[in-house]
Every structure is written in C-alpha cells, then in structure tokens.
Amino acid sequence: MGVLIIREMVGTSPTSWSDAAKQAVSRASRTVRNIRYVEVVKSTARVEDGEIVEYLVEMKISFEYESNAGA
Q1: Between the CA atoms of 60, 57, 13 and 37, what dihedral angle is there, to the nearest 10 degrees?
Q2: Which one, of 1, 2, 3, 10, lies nearest residue 60 by Cα?
Q3: Residue 68: what pLDDT?
Q4: How many CB atoms within 10 Å of residue 40?
Q5: DSSP summary character for residue 8
Q6: Which contiguous run of DSSP H or E holds residue 66?
Q7: How far apart, in whole angstroms, are the C-alpha atoms of residue 67 and residue 1?
Q8: pLDDT for the residue numbered 2
Q9: Which end of the chain is more exposed for a tag (fewer CB within 10 A), N or C?
Q10: Strand ranges of the sheet holding 4-13, from the earlier edge strand across to the other edge
Q11: How far apart are the two ends of the chain, measured CA to CA in Å?
C-alpha cells in the first residue's frame, strides 16, 4: 500500500449509528475506489418530540491513492 487519502463525511440513518456508518461507506464506494479504513470521529443523533429520529456519524474515510504515472 502506498499513499492514503483521507476525506471527511457524515452518514445518516433512521435506524442506528452502525447503519449510518454502513450507509456512508456504501454511498462513498459508488464514486471512490479502494476504500481501506473508516474512522468514526463523532456520533450524534437528532431528536424530535423526545425521540431519536436520525442517527449521524462523522467519519474519516481512507482510500488508496491511484497514480496514472507510467500508464
């Protein structure tokens, strides 16, 4: 493995923090190749009328840099 690029993102889910993380990785993998690691930096939830209605995770995703040099 060479160089890793790190980007921040927020995943959301009406179900759980775990599902919010899975949704974020699933969405990111549509346009980003070679995702290697995720780090959940912060977990929060949105509350309405005394009930949690949305789970949020702030994440850093790490993916491998692809160079076109020599191609």
Answers
A1: 30
A2: 10
A3: 66
A4: 15
A5: E
A6: none
A7: 12
A8: 79
A9: C
A10: 4-13, 51-64, 35-48
A11: 18
Query: Is the pLDDT score of 70 beyond 60?
Result: no
pLDDT band of 56, cuts 50, 70, 90: very high
Give the tokens for residue 2.
């060479």
Q: Which domains does the chain have, with CATH numbers?
A: 4-64 (3.30.1660.10)
Do you know the residue count of the chain?
A: 71
- The radius of gyration of the chain from alpha carbons, rounded to an integer in Å, stands at 15
> Is pTM beyond 0.90 here?
no
Q: Which residue has the tokens 């959301």?
A: 12
In sequence order, the 6+-apart residues with CB closer than 8 A to the CB of 3 are 64, 65
- CB atoms inside a 10 Å sphere around CB 20: 24
Q: Where are the beta strands (DSSP E) in 1-71?
A: 4-13, 35-48, 51-64
- The encoded tokens of residue 17 equal 């923090």
